[in-house]
């Protein structure tokens, strides 16, 4: 579909064929907020369930308690969620209002007028002044620069801070300033899309400006919404996309929520509890009906009618359904959302994750997945700008078979090269010329005469600056005329065409005309596999292949430079085809690439450049630490194979020979790749039990074939290898590899710094963006942004691990407190004729769910089982989180059993102490409730590892608040609890009962915990002991593979203060876990720290799918 935009046509504008420029990011309006928000909240199953329960409680015949006990918490939780949504939407409204009411200059009826930005229509000519924000997507018509250039800042669009140049279409060149507001024409463009790097359109100007000649438009002829005009006095353009149809507006939107492993487990546990609840309800319902028809009618005080209504059999089961509905905690979602928001704030507030060089702090964009950081199993990382600094330095080169810079390590100081330049060696001069002008760099001259360069690529910046230091200075660009200074001479070239770089072509070229002699030249630079195959038939390229290999072995980035002279007729014929391809609106990129291929052949390869990109500080240490934590690393890069391998070796991705082994997957055909893949798989299987660090290397071509035709075999290879190096991969292939690992049920984290990493970052379970020199595109698309790669260690080991531990406790405790009160209700039913009568009144139940048991546990967000220094020193303990040791059916069964045991204790002691003739049911209810509150205070205290004043205040202050609140209710005659708490607190029997409940309930728990902590300590317990005794915590040291290890060898560095007469009992890490066969890291890894001898034979990636 096409869009036809008539320029400066007031009549077409009045028809409003397209949307006006009113920006709206709001989710709601005043009228639809309540119904839409309620619809969204009730679209969740749990909310539907609680609404059903609340509605059933309105039926007075079956409700055992006042409906307020459910409606109160339900309304409170919905109100909290709705308030948060309303506040967020109101802030979006204020932001939209500010943008919509900004005043701009627009041409209306041939006159420039001042209007609000929201009143701009498609086809209007908009005038901008320096530093103005662009209000909509514009096609440039004119600028204050004589050559039709303007400079824009796109940081709000793609995060890149370097200024970019934009140019008016060739059809608008030379139009006088006074005539711009009268210009008429037609822009033929595609319908709105969100691709900010592409705009395939055509322009036709009506007479007298131009006689309907078609002028192709690209993204370089546009300035997009939210960019800023810089270093340009004025510019004007025609509005082509407005409002929410701009490229920025189309790219806005709420990303799909990510489901964490913890959330998935909570959903499964909720389902299990629901099934258990239904079974309990059916059993008790049948028992209640049987008792009613047999025993109940014999009791004089039970007055059942002889014949009831048709639904009589449903009354007791429904009553038990309402009684047992609190098995599923109504507050769990709000509680989890609240603490997850706090986890995100902890990341934002972490001063140790601020990049001191740039001042950039870490930031959590997604507040819902922090606990997933502690369960990461695979990290897929970009190389350039992520592992490296992305600061390119020209180091070496090879020109016509002669190597420069090999001895000194710096070609710029190589005497032989300097002498060749001084003698004006032909090949060297051509080589430097390509370095200087085959690019998109813009030279900027300061008032002092100094020349600086604005480059969109760090490689181009390095090449242009290196050429300048070698006396080939790119001095000026005036329209299409480039000026080069060389030894005092001014050399001018006219740019005829630019063949832009794409990830498919992997090269760029310019067609220039030498203004001195009129020769037309094609200058090209690109990857070796893109340039060397295009060399002329008679040229020997072996030297250049060797140069590329040599530089790659040093970890340097390589580019090949080539050229050829074009004949006039050849260029004119090709130029016609290029213009035709550039003006098509369908498959323009593919058509242009095909036409470019017709010109880029028979090249004379001049040489190879080698650019250094240094590793960031702390990268090797970070990768080594995270590998010890059981995390596998894959490097996905666009660089060539040898360069990637050298970087991988230098940053501890893989070990050098003989400890490490690299297996290569290559081939250009399906059969070759199949044989290579089978060979590597065979080697992987045979070396799996050997102490070798085995990794595989694959390039983009072989990877494409493997993913398309050998998915299963490549998936098996991925699960067998801890490390992979994927070279020459495209952005789509990066995303495919993430999807492959996710399909194997692994938790993936993708980290990158550039726009080409966005798809990978968004595809992964967790996306991390680095705020780097390539801009903020990756950081904005990611769930978390950090300043440097080294901060990833703290993000995972500290924030991820703490978040997982806290969420695991909070979620299981929420079920525990709900099950506790529900079991007491069930037990009470056995002494109340199985009638579904509630022991507790409505006020107590509501306060229990919302206040008494929620506040203490919310401060668990401050709990730390180990100090941060200990966690960073012993990364192996992350394996507990990866294996789901703290939240799984086994641990949940423990909490389930604890709630059942505590319910028995509370019920039995309370009944025996207060179930006599003179007691009131309200007294019994309050004693049982007091026992629950005291028990839960001690449970929270027992599970807390590090106490702060706030935690003490929340736990014990909440206990005091319980009595204060109930004293207040006891003073109200209408509360149903009149004088109850006053009387109880004066009775010694009450306090003795509470003491017995606490002693009987917590005694066995304390004894079991002491036994495990003392005689069967986990590795975390051992570290806790060392911390509390104040002794030094030694490193675990290296763990040699394939050795029969004893517990003394594993634990002795940690338990330095352990009594000598104690025989430590080894705790198999996963023996009691439902995921016990999920994965074992196998030999050759430092994770034998967690392996018992009987687990050592398990396959590392054995899955329980």
TrEMBL record:
Belongs to the cation transport ATPase (P-type) (TC 3.A.3) family. Type IV subfamily. This is Phospholipid-transporting ATPase. It is found in: Endomembrane system; Membrane. Residues 779-1018 form the P-type ATPase C-terminal domain. Keywords: ATP-binding, Magnesium, Membrane, Metal-binding, Nucleotide-binding, Translocase, Transmembrane, Transmembrane helix. The keyword Nucleotide-binding applies. Residues 5-71 form the P-type ATPase N-terminal domain. It catalyses: ATP + H2O + phospholipidSide 1 = ADP + phosphate + phospholipidSide 2. It comes from the Eukaryota. The chain crosses the membrane at residues 45-62, 269-291, 819-839, 845-862, 895-915, 921-941, 953-970, 990-1011. The keyword Magnesium applies.
């Amino acid at each position: 579909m096409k869009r036809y935009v008539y320029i400066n046509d007031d009549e077409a504008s009045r028809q409003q064929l397209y949307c006006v420029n009113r920006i709206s990011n709001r989710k709601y309006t005043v009228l639809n907020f309540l119904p839409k928000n309620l619809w969204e909240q009730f679209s969740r199953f749990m909310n539907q369930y609680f609404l059903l329960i609340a509605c059933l409680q309105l039926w007075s015949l079956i409700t055992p308690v006042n409906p307020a006990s459910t409606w109160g918490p339900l309304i409170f939780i919905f109100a909290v969620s709705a308030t948060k949504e309303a506040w967020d939407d109101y802030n979006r409204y204020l932001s939209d209002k500010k943008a919509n009411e900004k005043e701009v200059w627009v041409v209306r009826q041939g006159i420039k007028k001042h209007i609000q930005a929201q009143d701009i229509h498609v086809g209007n000519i908009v005038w901008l002044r320096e530093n103005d924000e662009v209000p909509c997507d514009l096609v440039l018509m004119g600028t204050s620069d004589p050559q039709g250039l303007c400079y824009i800042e796109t940081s709000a669009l793609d995060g890149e801070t370097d200024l970019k140049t934009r140019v008016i279409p060739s059809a608008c060149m030379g139009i006088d300033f006074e005539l711009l507001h009268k210009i008429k024409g037609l822009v033929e463009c595609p319908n709105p899309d969100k691709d900010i790097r592409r705009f395939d359109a055509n322009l036709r100007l009506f007479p007298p400006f131009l006689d309907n000649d078609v002028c192709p438009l690209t993204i370089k002829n546009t300035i997009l919404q939210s960019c800023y005009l810089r270093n340009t006095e004025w510019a004007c353009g025609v509005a082509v996309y407005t409002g929410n149809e701009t490229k920025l507006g189309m790219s806005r939107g709420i990303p799909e929520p990510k489901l964490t492993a913890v959330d998935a487990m909570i959903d499964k546990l909720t389902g299990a509890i629901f099934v258990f609840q239904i079974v309990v309800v059916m059993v008790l319902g049948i028992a209640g009906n049987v008792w009613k028809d047999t025993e109940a009618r014999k009791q004089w005080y039970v007055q059942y009618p002889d014949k009831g209504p048709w639904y009589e059999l449903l009354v007791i089961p429904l009553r038990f359904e309402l009684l047992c509905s609190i098995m599923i905690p109504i507050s769990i979602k709000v509680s989890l959302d609240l603490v997850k928001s706090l986890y995100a704030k902890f990341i934002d507030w972490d001063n140790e994750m601020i990049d001191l060089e740039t001042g950039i702090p870490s930031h959590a964009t997604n507040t819902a997945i922090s606990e997933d950081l502690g369960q990461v199993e695979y990290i897929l990382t970009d190389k350039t700008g992520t592992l490296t600094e992305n600061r390119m330095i020209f180091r070496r080169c090879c020109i016509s078979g002669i190597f420069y810079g090999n001895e000194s390590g710096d070609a710029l100081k190589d005497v032989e090269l300097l002498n060749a330049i001084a003698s004006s060696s032909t090949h060297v001069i051509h080589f430097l010329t390509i370095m200087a002008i085959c690019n998109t760099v813009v030279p900027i001259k300061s008032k002092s005469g100094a020349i600086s360069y604005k480059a969109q690529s760090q490689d181009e910046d390095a090449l242009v600056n290196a050429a300048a230091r070698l006396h080939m200075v790119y001095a000026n660009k005036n329209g299409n005329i480039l000026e080069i200074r060389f030894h005092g001479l001014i050399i001018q070239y006219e740019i005829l065409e630019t063949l832009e770089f794409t990830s498919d072509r992997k090269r760029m070229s310019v067609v220039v005309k030498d203004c001195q002699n009129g020769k037309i030249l094609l200058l090209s630079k690109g990857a070796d596999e893109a340039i060397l195959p295009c060399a002329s038939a008679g040229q020997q390229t072996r030297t250049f292949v060797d140069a590329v290999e040599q530089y790659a072995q040093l970890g340097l980035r390589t580019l090949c430079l080539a050229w050829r002279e074009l004949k006039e007729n050849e260029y004119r014929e090709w130029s016609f085809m290029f213009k035709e391809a550039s003006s098509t609106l369908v498959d323009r990129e593919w058509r242009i690439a095909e036409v470019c291929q017709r010109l880029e052949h028979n090249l004379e390869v001049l040489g190879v450049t080698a650019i250094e990109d240094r590793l960031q500080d702390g990268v090797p240490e970070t990768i080594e630490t995270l590998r010890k934590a059981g995390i596998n690393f894959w490097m996905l890069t666009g660089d060539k194979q040898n360069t990637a391998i050298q970087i991988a070796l230098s940053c501890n991705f893989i070990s050098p020979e003989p400890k490490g082994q690299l297996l290569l997957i290559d081939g250009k055909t399906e059969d070759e790749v199949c044989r290579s893949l089978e060979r590597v798989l065979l080697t992987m299987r045979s070396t799996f039990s050997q102490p070798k660090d085995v990794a595989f290397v694959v390039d983009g071509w072989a990877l494409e074939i493997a993913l398309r035709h050998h998915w299963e075999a490549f998936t098996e290879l991925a699960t067998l290898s801890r490390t992979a190096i994927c070279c020459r991969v495209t952005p789509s292939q990066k995303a495919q590899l993430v999807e492959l690992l996710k399909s194997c049920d692994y938790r993936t984290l993708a980290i990158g710094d550039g726009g080409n990493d966005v798809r990978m970052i968004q595809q992964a379970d967790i996306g991390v963006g680095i705020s780097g020199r390539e801009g903020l595109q990756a950081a904005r698309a990611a769930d978390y942004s950090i300043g440097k790669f080294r901060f990833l260690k703290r993000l995972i080991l500290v924030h991820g691990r703490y978040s997982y531990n806290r969420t695991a406790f909070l979620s299981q405790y929420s079920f525990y407190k709900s099950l506790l009160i529900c079991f007491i209700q069930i037990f009470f039913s056995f002494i109340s004729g199985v009638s579904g009568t509630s022991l507790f009144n409505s006020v107590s139940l509501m306060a229990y769910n919302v206040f008494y048991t929620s506040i203490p546990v919310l401060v668990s967000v401050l709990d730390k089982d180990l100090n941060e220094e200990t966690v960073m020193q012993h990364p192996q303990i992350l394996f507990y989180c990866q294996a789901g040791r703290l939240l799984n059916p086994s641990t949940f069964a423990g909490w389930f059993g604890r709630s059942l045991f505590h319910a028995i204790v509370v019920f039995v002691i309370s009944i025996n102490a207060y179930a006599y003739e003179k007691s009131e049911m309200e007294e019994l209810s309050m004693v049982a409730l007091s026992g629950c509150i005291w028990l839960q205070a001690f449970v929270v205290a027992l599970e807390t590892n590090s106490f702060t004043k706030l935690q003490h205040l929340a736990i014990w202050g909440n206990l005091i608040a319980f009595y204060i609140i109930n004293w207040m209710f006891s003073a109200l005659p209408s509360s149903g609890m009149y004088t109850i708490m006053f009387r109880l607190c004066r009775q010694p029997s009450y306090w003795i009962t509470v003491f017995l409940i606490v002693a009987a309930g917590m005694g066995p728990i304390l004894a079991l915990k002491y036994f495990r902590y003392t005689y069967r300590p986990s590795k975390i317990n051992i570290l806790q002991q060392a911390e509390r005794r104040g002794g030094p915590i030694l490193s675990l040291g290296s763990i040699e593979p394939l050795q029969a290890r004893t517990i003394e060898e594993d634990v002795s560095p940690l338990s330095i203060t352990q009594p000598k007469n104690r025989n430590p009992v080894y705790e198999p890490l996963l023996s009691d876990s439902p995921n016990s066969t999920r994965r074992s890291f196998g030999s050759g890894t430092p994770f034998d720290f967690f392996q018992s001898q009987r687990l050592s034979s398990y396959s590392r990636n054995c899955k329980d799918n």
